[in-house]
Amino acid sequence: AKIVCEVPSVPTNLSLSVEAQREKLQARERELENIRNRSELLKYKAFELDEMARELDLAEQQYWEDHNDYQLELMTFLEQRDSIHQDILTTEEHFKTLASTCVLNDVFHIAFDGHFGTINGFRLGLLPNIGPQGQVPWDEINAALSQTLLLVAALGVIFQVEFRDYDLVLRGSTSKIIRKSDRSEAELFGPSGFFAKNLPGETSFDRALVRLVDCIQEVTDTVCFQNPSFQLKHIIHGDTIGGKYSVRFNNNDQWTKAMKYLLMDLKWLLLAAQDEPWGD
Question: pTM of the prediction?
């Protein structure tokens, strides 16, 4: 007998269903692979962000450290600036005080010792008739005259006087006054070590004294131009001072009085110099 086995056929719709499921599975696998790839990418991005955050934290820390250092430097600078500003104010006040003080009063001290006028302690005059105290050594007189000429030169600088006719030659106790027109010299000193009623070279000495008062008058004229109310204590006219005392060496009493008046006038000019700005 012949046995025949028949295999049942798979329905078409079932075959299609399996195929659809396979495609879906493959699609899910592809989607899962995409998710894994995205996950790895996100992890990498997260790592980069963490690194950036760490760098930002370090940068922020450095910023605040630099900021604190800057604030400290700024405070130090401000303290130094305030200190310097205070020093400037103190210096300016000190300068104003010095500017209002005529140092010539200290450098050239003019006073009076009985019949004599003195400058820096040196008597200027001769009075042998009143005894030994009146016999002033010529060394002392010459020192007084040199200080007097130096003071006149200093007053010329302060009041910006360029003496028209004379050059002042400052050589201590052997100072001279030279006339510009002919360069003739006049010696502003007398014989040293002895007293003589008639001086050798008297003419030269007298000429120097007259030139000295001419220079003082020129300074006075400048001061009067700047301050019309200014007036000397004793008016100078030509070679006389105080109206009647000649600066020429001719009489001990009158010459000593003339030198005393001359120093008094210089003291008046020193007072005027106190109001004169320095360094302008």
Answer: 0.62
Cα separation of 259 and 155, whole Å? Answer: 18
Phi-psi region of 241 (alpha: psi -120 to 50; beta: other; left: phi over 0): beta
d(CA 259, CA 140): 14
Other beta carbons within 10 angstroms of residue 280's beta carbon come to 6
Q: Give pLDDT tens digits for 109-145.
A: 999 988 899 999 999 998 877 777 778 899 999 999 9
For residues 133-145, b (16+ Cβ closer than 10 Å) or e, as one string? ebebebebbbbbb
Cα separation, 87 vs 72, whole angstroms: 22
Task: Tell me how many degrees the CA angle 239-244-249 measures, rounded to the nearest 5.
Answer: 50
Segment 196-234, tens digit of pLDDT: 344 444 568 889 999 999 999 999 999 999 889 998 999
